[in-house]
Amino acid sequence: MTKVYTIASGKGGTGKTMTTVNLGTSLAMLGKRTIVLDADIGMANLGLVLGLEKSKITLHEVLAGKADISQAVYELPTGLKVVPSGISLQGFQNADPDRLQFVMSKLVADADYILIDAPAGISKDGVIPLAIADEVLLVVNPELSSMADAVKTKVLTEMVGGAIGGIILNRASAEKTELTAQKIGDIMGVKVLEVIPEDPSVRRAAAFKTPVVVKYPDSSAAIAYRRLAGKIAGSK
Ligand code: ADP
Ligand code: MG
After folding, report:
1. Which string of b and e fits 165-203 if b means at least 16 CB within 10 Å?
2. From the CA of 223, which ligand is nearest?
3. Radius of gyration of the chain from its Cα atoms, rounded to whole angstroms
4. 35-57 pLDDT, tens digit each
């Protein structure tokens, strides 16, 4: 059975795209058939961080009814399959987020895992990915504002009939003032699946349009992302 995860958070910049890319790549490198899909159709950058920004056919065209989803799937050397979104505003306007569920139904035959990179915010294109996943993974940074936004996303997910699978605490450092994984998990009533440290290798790898788990496999973030993938693959 295919398992569909949506990677979400309240606001932008928490690390949803990096988590999607690195968890997806790690699952692919474990031999799992994995597809990552950029549902952030307004501010797409999944394709950009994977060097697929020149793709002619993207989720925009598929959601506009102008192309079949099979034409928008690109395979990388790691085996990871990617459905990028387009970057034009026009493309965003023509894309109908209501088609996403149908599009997903056509992908499940070819995947063990589908990871949906969700947009920030609570507009329609942001809410649909929360409803159609088997589990929503909340990317939270160790600060109050990030947790408050994640709580909102959790409530919204439950309102639309979705299920929360856990928290990924991203950009953690050893700073005394920051919220611990334990505290965040307790307050939110959600299990923290993994802690990804603040690690400059993440950004450095992105500059090479390569996931950190490929470019700097020994970095602390890469190790944490692989551990998360191992847990997810082991729990199915
Ligand atoms: P989102 O998709 O939630 O908007 P991104 O994944 O694009 O967020 O990440 C936002 C920024 O934070 C990027 O510049 C990214 O390189 C950086 N970043 C994400 N995770 C980490 C991390 N663990 N350590 C250091 N920088 C990170
Ligand atoms: Mg993003």
Report:
1. bbbbbbbbeeeeebbebeebbeebebebbbbbbbbebbe
2. 1
3. 16
4. 999 999 888 899 999 999 999 99
Q: Which domain holds residue 17?
A: 3-234
What's the number of domains the chain is made of? 1
Check pocket membership of 196 for ligand 1, CB cut-off 6 A. Answer: yes
Structure confidence by residue, pLDDT tens digits, 108-163: 988 999 999 999 877 888 899 999 999 999 999 999 999 999 999 999 999 999 99
Point out the ligand 1 atom lying closest to the alpha carbon of residue 172: 23
Residues within 5 Å of ion ligand 2, judged at the Cβ atom: 16-17
- CATH code, domain carrying 37: 3.40.50.300
Q: Is 16 in the pocket of ligand 1 (CB under 6 A)?
A: yes
Ligand 1, atom 9, residue with closest C-alpha: 15
